[in-house]
Predict the structure of Heme A synthase.
Amino acid sequence: MGKRLYGLSLASVIGMGLVLLMGALVTKTGSGEGCGTDWPLCNGKFVPAYTIESMIEYSHRFVSGIVGLLVLGAAIATYMKLRHSGEAMLFAFGALFFTILQAILGALAVIYPQSEAVMALHFGFSLLAFSTSLLLTVGIRTGAYVPAGSKAHRSARLLAMDDRTANIVPGMRKWIWGATIYSYVVVYVGAFVRHTESSGGCLGWPLCNGEVVPALHGATGIAFAHRIAAVLLLVIVAIIAYRSSRTPGSPDLLRAAARWALLLTVLQVFSGASVVWTLSSDWYLLTALMHVVLVSGLFGVLCYMSVLAWRSARISADPNRPAS
């Protein structure tokens, strides 16, 4: 695989991760209006005034623009080298699509004030752009795609990878796909908490305002819903990790990914708790950004597990697959 393509895709992943962090920073510091209602200029200027809010917001825009060019470059390079691979094309141009979509949504949020529900989608689309870029990079790195010009589209290395994913049973595939979709819902609710500034609705952890089930209204109801959703996600991921470890013949790739998913889920639960614990301290911004990092990593791992399940389904249904 060409080093330039891998380098571009890797730079896109790192860049999209930075965009996610900077977007969260904009929200947490209340810098969304740092450039007024002007876009792409900042308060009518190419170089904004040196205020904290304007610099944070404009830096986010600048980095997003650079990363957009990287994602575009990765998509073009993928088309040139891997256009015969439907999976690679899906991830490359999926990343480009979601990058453009989140940029448009961000611009509209500046020019025309949007509801909190719509603003929460901005983070969700950015997360999808990050995840599709990640899947493309992992596929390239692991040799899942055969370079254009190869005489055999199914090389010995790819067949070996197929053997490691073909034994994911149909029931496990459904659990994985369901967990991935549900995790996106949890992420959206978390973004909604952030944009509605409902983090303080549940003071204390694990209890909410000193109660097991608090009065479910306003910010308290939103924050409590996110907590319950996160706990349920932990249970689902734990079941997947347990079943993958106990099922005979379960692929090593799946077992390893499931263990990582469980670890990241546990960490993101405790990082969410740390956000509550540090609400009134100088550590709040750091814990909030760490929560974003862990949630993004968890969603990326679940998406990779979904791809493994998808490959397994395709391989199992292939009538020309050689008998093992």
Q: What stands out?
A: Residues 151-163 have pLDDT under 50 and may be disordered. The chain is about 70% helix and 0% strand. Residues 284-316 form the longest helix (33 residues).
